[in-house]
Amino acid sequence: QVQLVESGGGVVQPGRSLRLSCAASGFTFSSYAMHWVRQAPGKGLEWVALISYDGSNKYYADSVKGRFTISRDNSKNTLFLQMNSLRAEDTAVYYCAVVKWEFEEGGAFDIWGQGTMVIVSS
Amino acid sequence: DIQMTQSPSTLSASVGDRVTITCRASQSISSWLAWYQQKPGKAPKLLIYKASSLEGGVPSRFSGSGSGTDFTLTISSLQPDDFATYYCQQYNSYSTFGQGTKVEIK
């Protein structure tokens, strides 16, 4: 069964750091680009970051560039999002998602995790 | 950056209605567009990719059309399970989502 399971969310103070994980199963993780997408409470979807299937290419939304780092461990089928210098506006549900086609960086996301909530508050 | 503009933001409709949602890109994205359905507390679900290709398992009442900058999602006969929020997404350059269209019961 194809599955993505996020973890690592929680309540954190402004300026602090948090690391999210996304455990993948049921497909060849190392062949697919991965993305993080977030959704603030009551708001729409916002793309956050992309990493290529082999980790060689990484791209970020302007809103998180320089503060967030996407990475992956293909030996452990796990995707990460290191979030530093967190701000109140980073409060959101964070989803990991898989691109539909092997080796393609861009694409429709056919598999999503259930999401993990990050709350940035003092 | 490519901006995506959806309309309307909210749509009130009845079961059996034909529903159309539009999405406009700030520059040409060819056919690199997807549509998602999201229900409260759930992750988005892929409905349409490459502007008009129906994802496996998605009912045929959903259809997509368009290319370049103007795109449409159509639900031919709205069913009770279709009341949800719909998002378009461009993937021509990284990714950008539209702001969403909430389909409500009239």
**Greatest chain-chain interface?**
A-B, 21 and 24 residues
Alpha plus pi helix count of chain B: 0
Strand content of chain A: over 45%
Helix content of chain A: under 10%
Strand pairing plus helix content of chain B: what structural class?
Answer: mainly beta
Oligomerization category of the chains in this entry: heterodimer
- Could you state the order of secondary-structure elements of chain A as H and E? EEEEEEEEEEE
Question: Roughly what is the average pLDDT of chain A, rounded to an integer?
Answer: 97
Description of the structure:
Chain A is mainly β and 122 residues long. Helix content of chain A is 0%, strand content 50%. The N and C termini of chain A lie far apart (39 Å). The mean pLDDT of chain A is 97. Chain B is built from no helices and eleven strands. The mean pLDDT of chain B is 97. Chain B has 106 residues and is mainly beta. Chain B has strands at residues 4-7, 10-13, 19-25, 33-38, 45-49, 53-54, 62-67, 70-75, 85-90, 96-97, 101-105. In chain B, the strands form two sheets. In chain B, strands 2, 4, 5, 6, 9, 10 and 11 form a seven-stranded mixed sheet that branches. In chain B, 36% of the residues are buried. Classes of the chains: A mainly beta (122), B mainly beta (106). At the A-B interface, strand 5 and strand 10 of A face strand 4, strand 5 and strand 10 of B.
Question: Main traits of this protein?
Answer:
heterodimer, A: 122 residues, mainly beta, seven-stranded mixed β-sheet, four-stranded antiparallel β-sheet, 11 strands, 0% helix, B: mainly beta, globular
